[in-house]
Amino acid sequence: MPIDGKNTHSGGNGEIVTRFAPSPTGYLHIGGARTALFNWLYARGRGGKFLLRIEDTDRARHNDDAVAAILDGLKWLGLDWDGDPVSQHGRRDRHIEIANALLSGGNAYKCWLSGDALNAARDAAKNDGVRFESPWRDRDPSDGPPGEPFAIRFRAPRTGDTEIVDAVQGAVRFPNNALDDLIILRSDGNPTYNLAVVVDDHDMGVTHVVRGDDHLNNAARQKQIYDALEWTAPQFAHVPLIHGTDGAKLSKRHGALGVEAYRDMGFLPEALANYLIRLGWSHGDDEIIPRDKALEWFDLDSVKKSPARLDMEKLKSINTHYISQLSDGKFCEIATPFLAASGIALDKDNVDRLKRAAPFLKSRCATLADAPDAAAFLFLSRPLIIEGKPAKPLAKDGALEMLGAIDSALADDTAWLTPGSLDDALQGIAAEKNVGFGAIGPPLRAALTAGKPSPGLGEVLYSLGPDEARARIRDVTR
Questions:
Q1: 198 neighbors 222 (Cβ within 8 angstroms)
Q2: What is the distance between the alpha carbons of residues 162 and 363, in angstroms, rounded to a whole number?
Q3: Among 95, 76, 75, 77, CA closest to 85
Q4: Mean of pLDDT over the chain
């Protein structure tokens, strides 16, 4: 019984069409983000289309804020979609049309079984070790109670197997005697998930359905509906779920789950996307996979069958790389909110110091949330050493005299050209005084940073600038 399709997007002429279809009940889960990324890469890397469908048939759980969070998360990750997002709820009439077409063609039937009677029938089938079937499957619908609401059930085949040839899992067979007659239209007139998904994917011209392997059983039910409608099923690709480091299915106890949480922790979208690509897919031993290479290399053949484990340390390592690749200006721009949130007042002098220090701070930040600690030495209030309590290195004999000599040497403007020239000036002082650098470094670092984490001394001096750096030295030598 072929049913006319109503494709709204072309999937013909070999064009790849994928989709991401989240439920609007919460944030963009990290697993959902990976699913979206895989779909986006597979389509975009082959010149195809990536569609977005909001599966909002459950109106009781629908949340407009969740929809906005999902869209924002996708945009932040750089995953654009073709056309407007499709509302599954908005296609309700089409779903009902197909349910009734299946009914009129004999591939579905009216079922009045509900409530306690339904529960009893299910329990009896379970106790007998047989598949549940409604007694209305083979009864004349005219026997139904007049005026009483009924559901429409799909008439699933009783014998044989339903085979899914999956791009990731391979050929998977499901005994039909284990798949019962699912409801496709509830007694309240609302379509169910498995029917809606089939109709929507068909009408949207979806050629490849890439999703979590928790949907593999659904694929068997959906394949039966495709066959009954004489529609071509898409290529399924069921990707193993993401697990925590303990091997258990990812849950709240493993840490942040939503994309926005990773953003707020200071991860870059490029880094998170790179890490997600490597969760369940690989290209040789490559760890850093820029977006252009991901588009070129990604395929379904290299998706692994075993679950991937979320490893925050690996994510931080990748994030460190991407932070180091930022321009100095971009780093300052996106680190500023984290600095402000930590209470750092970014006046003109502090902004200038941040700009000068940016080249040396980037490599010291695994996330942008590390920026306040990495840059703290820049924003210390003078005097750094208060109430006659100098940092420990300054208590050594000759430390204050050495700092005075350093201050005098740094009066030469040519020393301030680069961090390297400042390091050379310090080495020159050590040679002139015939001392090791250990006699210079500790007292100078204490005077400049009060023990805060900091880069090399030449970089610290260059970041602070001559006025601030020499003023800090003088604060402890007067």
A1: yes
A2: 54
A3: 75
A4: 92
pLDDT of residue 478: 82
CA-CA distance, 284 to 444, in Å (whole number)? 47
Sequence-distant (≥ 6) Cβ neighbours of residue 252 within 8 angstroms:
none
d(CA 195, CA 84): 22
Cα(39)–Cα(215) distance, rounded to whole angstroms?
15
How far apart, in Å, are the Cα atoms of 333 and each of 42, 330, 378? 32, 5, 16
Distance CA 245, CA 303 (A): 19
Task: Say whether 305 is catalytic.
Answer: no
pLDDT over 80 at 388, yes or no: no
Extract the tokens encoding 296: 């070129």
Four-residue CA torsion sign, 158, 163, 168, 169 = positive
Predicted confidence band of residue 6 (pLDDT cuts 50, 70, 90): low
* CB 369 within 8 Å of CB 265: yes
Q: Label each residue of the chain as H, E or C.
A: CCCCCCCCCCCCCCCCEEEECCCCCCCCEHHHHHHHHHHHHHHHCCCCEEEEEECCCCHHHCCHHHHHHHHHHHHHCCCCCCCCCEECHHHHHHHHHHHHHHHHCCCEEEECCCHHHHHHHHHHHHHHCCCCCCCCCCCCHHHCCCCCCCEEEECCCCCCEEEEEECCCEEEEEEHHHCCCCEEECCCCCECHHHHHHHHHHHCCCCEEEEEHHHHHHHHHHHHHHHHHCCCCCEEEEECCEECCCCCECCHHHCCCEHHHHHHCCCCHHHHHHHHHHCCECCCCCCCCCHHHHHHHCCCCCECCCCEECCHHHHHHHHHHHHHCCCHHHHHHHHHHHHHHCCCCCCHHHHHHHHHHHHHHHHHCCCHHHHHHHCHHHHCCCCCCCCCCCCHHHHCCCHHHHHHHHHHHCCCHHHHCCHHHHHHHHHHHHHHHCCCHHHCHHHHHHHHHCCCCCCCHHHHHHHHHHHHHHHHHHHHHC
Cα–chain-centroid distance for residue 387? 49
Backbone angles phi, psi at 164, to 5 degrees: -110, 115
**φ, ψ for residue 12 (rounded to 5)?**
-85, 180
Answer whether residue 250 shows pLDDT above 90: no
User: In degrees, to the nearest 5, what angle opens at C-alpha 389 toward C-alphas 385 and 390?
Assistant: 60
- β-sheet bridge partners, residue 249: 243
Is the pLDDT assigned to residue 5 strictly greater than 60?
no
433 CB-near residues (< 8 Å, 6+ apart) = 402, 405, 439
Assess contact for 424 and 348: CB atoms under 8 A.
no
In the set 252, 293, 304, 392, the catalytic residue is 252
What number of other Cβ atoms are within 10 A of residue 273's Cβ?
A: 25
